[in-house]
UniProtKB/TrEMBL annotation, chains A, B, C, D:
Active site per UniProt: 179
Any single GO BP term: L-valine catabolic process
Enzymatic reactions: 3-hydroxy-2-methylpropanoate + NAD(+) = 2-methyl-3-oxopropanoate + NADH + H(+)
Organism of this sequence: Ficedula albicollis
Protein name per its UniProtKB record: 3-hydroxyisobutyrate dehydrogenase
Length: 306, 306, 306, 306
């Protein structure tokens, strides 16, 4: 374990070079870390070869060559495969290695993976991010980190290369939990903002004035004061640009699905969280999948043609 | 109309001296206005007699003696009775009088009353308040005002005696609309906060830490950062005091009922607002009627005894 | 009052000759009753003139000439206008007249009208119908009747000309209450059927087989066994005909709005009824207004093009 | 494979002798089958020893001695353990064995188990039941069976000893799917019935009369006509006996959790199913866990003491 804490510029593995993983790994390179990469699509690695990174054939190969690895994968099954699959990390992980999973997945899966990693004498931390592709590029993501507290500083050393905020949340799985809870509340307050704005407009209020009133009152929330879903109320947000960019409805539906599964497994009532999930699910079915999640305002609104 | 705009310390009528009306009327007295009062319960007027106010027998009597009247009543039917009933204001209202209704009622009823008032040559404004009994006493309520814009300054002159914030919202009914929309969004984000906090705690997060994370992220809202519903997270809020004081669940249920009726009448979809209404309704049926509305955290939580 | 009970073929007034009122009034004619008609659209009366009916200029005129009147109107405000408006029935209603309102409206409004009618010495009954235009033509509507029990037989005499089922429900307003409760449960079980069928299909079940299993199990309901919303499962229902005909989504949304208002006024929690209302409201906003209400299956389904 | 189809009275394994498994296994004994039993609680096996059954030490032991095995377990993790655990069936299963799982679990888990079983050269079918402990004793359960169609008759031979209805649903997992869909629709229509009955009563209708009207109208469902949740409407149902007996709220919450997970995994919108899940979850948190699921009527009702 000495090697990784003493000499911090030893190589770092990075698995999963998609929309988010790509800029994150680049920020590691920028900070002077040699990186060893793998992606299921070989073409995703090319760019990194040009940057001097070692490209490998499998997660196991990465584990053989690096004792600090970051994974950034789209879903629980992918994470399981990368860690415990036939050519997974655990096939060749070294004792004392630090494995940081930045995917957003079911916290129960994070716990399973942590157990399997621990059996091999290595350390697992979950560190999902908040912030989109822009924040990944700019290196100002927020990381919510779960795992053994003594290892937090070692993780933070790497994560600060990619994010401006690295928060320790508690034992393994609590990073995921924090992210899931935040996004569930975000979805609820976004839909609530869209409903309140829509109702107010129908009752004769000017949208800008209504937003101003909400923002100085108890209805104030991030969705009303920073990311207002009504076109014309704010500039520089997806609602000002036909709901392009931002955080896609399909991604929000995915996170709400994780919240739902966690709530079901812990027998926690989440009546509005559950309804928010259904609304984003219906939006996906009705053609809004690729629009920003603030498009719920548009979804709830009467169609122009009617 | 001259009289009321030129000599501002002519008497002001006040009808409805309940929990809110009482301190509001007292603030008018403190600002040097002679007041002429009426309440359906004669004992509510006594205190004002001692303060030198004229006590009358009916709303009509008030209208006979004052050309500026403020009404503060518990619901739409009460407001209808006070304005259009057998001994209502309209029986004796003087031309040019200014009638300000601070009750929280259906905006459609405000519009009806405004029409009836207008027929008599007088002016009606709806000016519901935000802020509870404490704010009423301290004179720092927020008033959301709907009505003809030219009359707004005349209304403001009086309302600033009772509130620190007087916002012009648009035509008659928009004051109610603004209040209803704010409270609907408030209820939604409060329930959402309670769900997210509860789920996070079940998943192993420390409540204070979770609140801190939400408040620096996109889940942030007034209910999470100013009025957190989880005991132990903040001081000086109802959740720190067994949900006593604050804004009662039964009052929130009433406001959500108004939002529901407005949404039904304007055919506006409000899926979460509607569900929030049902949750507060169930809470009323299960013994939470008199607790602060943040007690939804307690309602959703597993009972200790189980 | 004698005249109307003794000589049953005295003229019957009929106000509101729309999609439903037209065939209902014709069935009265078929049964030998002279009818005296009024509709706000004069052209709606023409057809009845040709059938020998007297056409009048106002509801008041009808009340002057007939001591039994049936009204069939689209909503609460229309009903108020026809009864209590400037040229309304009550302007000229005769003592002892029997006024039967078959509109579907807020039961609280029925009670208001009943009071006003009673003051004039006449009798009011609410008698909303179940069954659509087809049942109106065939004369096999169901009438749910509220009002004084002693008058039920007099009402039944007329209503049996238009319906095969005439049920006494209790005091004034309970006819509306019964209809509203039935339609709320209908909407809930229709959406539930659509969800269950859709989920089953996604999980690999054959729709016909799934419908058969539900119908022999505890999930059985009218929407699953008589009016299945999945194309291909049954014949002769709207789902077999691109959701044309049947009971329009916009009408279901209206009835759910009435249920919601009644529930709000009586402080009754209706969490699924309320959600059903919102779903039909969203469908109206998304282009399903004129389709049969079983089209909720189509609404919940993934779009073909995705 | 011959042995099991030709000589049907060869021993049958039975794993899981709880409330349901106990009477089911006894019915096999009654039909002359020698049974080989296992339960995690040894005392659960005693009774069977007295009946002449072989008692074993593990699922693997059962698999060694019987080539037809029925499992009846409380949840997905238990089923995984019994099949794939350290002493699980798969450790010693014989080629050609028929493994029938009557547990109610996630259909995705059934599919996983089927794959694992298939790899060992054996056959897996999911066959969850409908009907409670009473039906299990009386031998008239309904089995919904998923798996390879050619094996259905072999399964049916055993299942008909325990049930009166054995329905083939399709490939592996569709038995679970059918049960989950039915119970989701059941929960929705039960809550809907409770809401409609409660609202009707508040609006002045007699509960028996309202039930009669619903049952002859389009609101009719199993919950209204066979299992009415309102005390006093029907005899011989849990609502007539303070909601004791019947199908517990906690079990319904479990099945709705499975429906929710299946819907989340297949991205199917189930807005009312999801809300029904939340309502039963809240009921569990508020002391209704052990009452029949029709107690939702009581849950929605105003408390007597208020």
């Amino acid at each position: 374990m000495c090697s990784r804490t003493m000499a911090s510029k030893t190589p770092v593995g990075f698995i999963g070079l998609g929309n988010m993983g790509n800029p994150m790994a680049k920020n590691l390179v920028k900070h002077g870390y040699p990186v060893i990469v793998y992606d299921i699509f070989p073409e995703a690695c090319k760019e990194f070869q040009d940057l001097g990174a070692q490209v490998t054939e499998s997660p196991a190969d990465v584990a053989e060559r690096a004792d600090r690895i970051i994974t950034m994968l789209p879903s629980s099954p992918h994470a399981k495969e990368v860690y415990t699959g036939a050519n997974g990390i655990l096939k060749k992980v070294k004792k004392g290695s630090l494995l940081i999973d930045s995917s957003t997945i079911d916290p129960a899966v994070s716990k399973e993976l942590a157990k399997a990693v621990e059996k091999m004498g290595a350390v697992f931390m979950d560190a999902p991010v908040s912030g989109g592709v822009g924040a990944a590029r700019a290196g100002n993501l927020t990381f919510m980190v779960g795992g053994v507290e003594q290892e937090f500083n070692a993780a933070k050393e790497l994560l600060t290369c990619m994010g401006s905020n690295v928060v320790y949340c508690g034992e393994v799985g609590t990073g995921q939990a924090a992210k899931i809870c935040n996004n569930m509340l975000l979805a609820i307050s976004m839909i609530g903002t869209a409903e309140a704005m829509n109702l107010g407009i129908r009752l004769g209020l000017d949208p800008k004035l209504l937003a101003k009133i909400l923002n100085m009152s108890s209805g104030r929330c991030w969705s009303s004061d920073t990311y207002n879903p009504v076109p014309g109320v704010m500039e520089g947000v997806p609602s000002a640009n036909n709901y392009q960019g931002g955080f896609g409805t399909t991604l929000m539906a995915k996170d709400l699905g994780l919240a739902q599964i966690s709530a079901t497994n812990t027998k926690t009532p989440v009546p509005l969280g559950s309804q928010a999930h259904q609304i984003y699910r219906m939006m996906c079915a009705k053609g809004y999948a690729m629009k920003d999640f603030s498009a719920v305002f548009q979804f709830l609104r009467e169609e122009e043609s009617l």
